[in-house]
Prior knowledge:
The protein is α/β, with parallel strands linked by helices. The chain has helices at residues 6-18, 32-44, 59-64, 86-90, 105-112, 131-141, 187-194, 207-212, 216-226, 228-234, 240-244, 247-266, 274-282, 289-294, 311-314, 316-330, 336-349, 353-356, 370-379; strands spanning 25-28, 48-51, 66-71, 75-78, 81-83, 95-98, 121-124, 149-153, 158-164, 167-173, 177-182, 201-203. The chain folds into two domains: 6-205, 3-Layer(aba) Sandwich (Rossmann fold); 215-373, N-(1-d-carboxylethyl)-l-norvaline Dehydrogenase, domain 2, CATH 1.10.1040.10. Strand 6 (95-98), helix 5 (105-112) and strand 7 (121-124) form a beta-alpha-beta unit. The protein starts with 5 loop residues before the first helix and ends with a helix. The mean pLDDT is 95.
Amino acid sequence: MKNIDWEGIVEHLDLVAAKGKKMVWCVVGAGNGGLAMAGHLGIMGFPVHIYNRTNEHLNAIHWYGGIDIEGAVTGFGPVLLASADIGEAVEGSDVIMIVTPSTAHYSLATLMAPFLKDGQIVVLNPGRTGGALEFRAELERQKCKARVVLVEAQTFIYASRMITRNRAHIFSIKNGVPVSALPSFLTPAVLKVIDVAFPQFIAGSNVLATSLENIGAVFHPALTLLNAGWIESTGGDFEYYLQGISPSVARVLQTIDDERLALARALGIRTVSAREWLYLTYDSVGDDLYTAIRSTVAYAGLKAPRSIDHRYIWEDVPMSLVPMASMAAMYSIETPAINLIIDLANLMLGQDYKANGRTVHSLGIEGMSVEELHRLVTEG
């Protein structure tokens, strides 16, 4: 990954953008998000590959030849290739959209390293906190020589749910999703490519910004744990955001958000509050976080998880809150509310997410000064 001819990569990405509807997209993951994205790409007329680690979950796509989409987008999206062979899936792909829980990013980097080619774009949808840094560090550990362009999305572009293994419902598509390349000066060239399909993607400052704009870290773990009794007694039969939020729960979320913003300021990152994010993403208005969440129309109908043993905990705690706490500790920023939620998750799920989550060591940034960290994410 060293001595990369970045100028050559930029020229290559311009050629990929010029392919228009002929560019090949590979969607990694055939769950709620992966089915929605692959089906939508097929409806838009792009050649689509989809990868899943088990063939069983691809059988319906094989049988019908694609994915049915309903909701904010409707139609049938043909799929050119559905495979449980990662090498086959990424072969010939211009853009690789990873749409899996972020707990899989590390293993996917290991799995994909031998098959990646120069100039391929790999987008983490989303990266959560530190996704691109972790992916980069693992590719280097695997001695991957391909000049790939890593990209991190701030959040997932859809609110969607899988209905069957070849049918998905898209509730809404976000107005704007910041993305950033690693290094960030490649972001304009990347956007020329991915905006051909998704004009909703906009330029983020760098991967530190997209990581620290991880609003799921604010909303998901605390909201789930503080509604544990209701979730376990009803199997999640209530509207997660609209009924699960209350003024007191919102105050906890606000404190977590304040700590996230304090870390961002310490790193020289300009970001928005959770309340501002709701307005920018969903046009939601409110005098405080509680009223802003309650006014978010896109959240209507979204049920709570059936159990607290859910990705809102086993993904968002180790992949979002733990790296925030680890980075904050390295730069002497206090995060008592974030640490409280991590400890509560450990206690309630019987895990040690601090030991198993992303840290400054696994991200490859341990001991870096703020200036060194900025050079890494902007210059490569």
